[in-house]
Amino acid sequence: MTDAPIRVGLIGLGRSGWHLHAAGLAELDQYSIVAAADPDPERRAEAEARFGCAGYAEPGELLADGRVELVVVATPSHTHVPLGVAALDAGKHVVVEKPLAQSTAEVDTLIAAANRAGRVATCFQNNRFEPSFLAVREIIASGRLGELILIRRSVHRYTRRSDWQTVRRYGGGELPNTASHFLDQLLLLVDDGPLELFADLRHTISAGDAEDHVKLVMKPKTGPLLDLESSSAIATPQSGWLIAGSTGGLTATDESLHLTWYDPDTAEEVELHEGTPPGRSYLSGDTIGWQQETRRFDPGVAERTALYYQHLARTLRGGADLHVTLQSVRRQIEVIERARRQTGLL
């Protein structure tokens, strides 16, 4: 066990590599960026100037750098597993950006490589630390919502994208590159049993040939129905969360949550009346003492990244359990693969 900073090599200095990983790691004393690889010489020069690190044009050069302990793979999606395996084979620990892989077979390849190397491999699912999600988990665990009926997660905006993530051969698409964050959250709220799946993936307003509109409905054998909408083609967005339970419900956005619930022990029992109702009205018999709570959140991404890497440091330096295991992400990739197969977008 040592307090020395974890020496990081970044592969890929694009949006995620620069704004999330590099920026986040630079704020943490537990890490030191010692190398960066990117084919763009201007990006390499920027990293060298900011972090005092070595710059490499090719990933293989970075993997040969003996100072690097932890490799962060922040490259286009279709390269994640090949580069992750190469990093593990070079004796490095590895963080792979989401999506972890293009298939469950690729996940298994990565797991095998990590086991073979005796190194830590994990996926950058930083939205497991999203404030609204943490609040949702806490409220569900408290039992205030009773038996859960429906959990809906909606990520709506109207954006006509034209970058590489709209192209299927690069691993593009709304489902693996955006919806995977929220699919990961939903799957953590139900047990590990089998799921019935309905998928609607559509290419609508963006460039390229990958889906930009995702609708998934998942039904476990027991527990709530899971409903996920992640779309670039919705100009009238709805709340990010809607949860219905037998004794309450909630709605939430990135910035706030509103909870309504009651204690069933304080409510009168509803009695059935099969005869003609008086006054030609519906009978409910409700005398419910509703309670309400509102919470506010700071939706910033920086804190989620910091929490993710702080947990990882405790694993690498202190032997703590890994927070995001490859096995926990495998189920997410399985659902993505099934949805693609169901809709012909494999």
From TrEMBL:
<protein>
    <submittedName>
        <fullName>Predicted dehydrogenase</fullName>
    </submittedName>
</protein>
<dbReference type="Pfam" id="PF01408">
    <property type="entry name" value="GFO_IDH_MocA"/>
</dbReference>
<feature type="domain" description="GFO/IDH/MocA-like oxidoreductase">
    <location>
        <begin position="133"/>
        <end position="250"/>
    </location>
</feature>
<dbReference type="GO" id="GO:0000166">
    <property type="term" value="F:nucleotide binding"/>
</dbReference>
<dbReference type="InterPro" id="IPR055170">
    <property type="entry name" value="GFO_IDH_MocA-like_dom"/>
</dbReference>
<dbReference type="InterPro" id="IPR000683">
    <property type="entry name" value="Gfo/Idh/MocA-like_OxRdtase_N"/>
</dbReference>
<dbReference type="InterPro" id="IPR036291">
    <property type="entry name" value="NAD(P)-bd_dom_sf"/>
</dbReference>
<feature type="domain" description="Gfo/Idh/MocA-like oxidoreductase N-terminal">
    <location>
        <begin position="6"/>
        <end position="121"/>
    </location>
</feature>
<dbReference type="Pfam" id="PF22725">
    <property type="entry name" value="GFO_IDH_MocA_C3"/>
</dbReference>
<dbReference type="InterPro" id="IPR051317">
    <property type="entry name" value="Gfo/Idh/MocA_oxidoreduct"/>
</dbReference>
